Amino acid sequence: MEQRNQTPVSEFILRGLLEEGELQPLLLWLFLSMYLVAFSGNLLIVLAIVTDSRLHMPMYFFLANLSFSDICFTSTTVPKMLWNIQTQSKVITYAGCLSQMYFFMLLAGLDNFLLTVMAYDRFVAICHPLHYTDIMNPKFCCILLLVCWVLSVLDSLLHDLMVLQLSFCTQIEIPHFFCELNQVIQLACSDTFSNILAIYLASGFLEVLPLIGILFSYSRIVTSILKISSSGGKYKAFSTCGSHLLVVSLFYGTGFGVYLSSAASQNSRTTAIASVIYTVVTPMLNPFIYGLRNRDIKLALRKLFGREAFSAYKDPLFQDEDMCSRAQNPGRPRS
Question: Largest Cα–Cα distance in the chain?
Fold first, then answer.
């Protein structure tokens, strides 16, 4: 039996997205801009929901947690990449690499489960509006959030502990801008069959099953929306829920493409570019898709900045609340 964990690895080399030195300043400002937009946008969503008592309801409770998760998610990879570009150093310590992998997988899994819970929340709101407050009560919402965290922590901890059992060769260059699980496993000298098996099993149970739940929820939502007689109501509902499905498609599409095919693919550049979408672009779009198109969030943001919000929305565009928000609050008077 081969003795594992014998090779003393103290650091890895992150090759980044581009090798061309003249493009590094452009890459620095591009990712810095996207990171600041993602960070500030999601932070504003969290502050707006926390400070406005009108938004203390399940839909916005999960949205605030998703925004907080996205802040942490982008912060696990982008600042390190920006630092490496600025200092022209590509080194990351062994402990730093394992820590980055752990938090990246934890927060990616948390996003995955939160997207599933949000789809279920909208399913209950639209398809069972009369029972919504009974089903999505505060205790049940906290239990759902706790389950999301526990599953994410256990999954990321499992993969990290399995990587600790690997021994590494002298080739320690990672063709990526962060310590991605598959790329790190490919550098190991010891047998990685159990690691690859764990990735496929975790992807099946913790990604495929939630995706099936999302698709089922939205199939029922679409069926309910088609029964709405008002064309305007149908348009608003499809627009809101379609935006959510767009983010789900970006997140799951790029995630599955990277984690299920990178082990067999030799094109590391394609893998790294695909990773940009779900590590930076999707969290950056979160405030615009989930928050800034929502009337209640806009009112809360204006209130947060000390402006008189309730007299500002006389435009016919904002006279009707979106379908998902109205369904979740059937008893709330319209402004």
Answer: 74
Residue position matching structure tokens 């930076």: 280
Do residues 104 and 111 touch, judged by C-beta distance below 8 A?
no
Burial class of 245 by CB neighbour count within 10 A (0 to 12, 13 to 18, 19+): middle
Q: Which tokens sit at 103?
A: 């938090």
Please enumerate in sequence order all residues whose Cβ is within 8 A of that of 47, keeping only pairs 6 or more positions apart, or say none: 304
156-167 pLDDT, tens digit per residue, is 999 999 999 888
Task: Specify the pTM.
Answer: 0.84
If residue 173 lies in a helix (H) or strand (E), which one and from where to where? Answer: strand 173-174
Q: By three-state DSSP, how is residue 29 classified?
A: helix
Helix then strand then coil, in percent of the chain rounded to 5, is 75, 5, 25
Cβ–Cβ under 8 Å, residues 152 and 107? yes
State residue 64 phi and psi, 5-degree precision.
Answer: -65, -40
- Integer Cα distance of 228 and 320 in angstroms: 15
Token readout for 276 is: 């940009």
DSSP, res 89: -
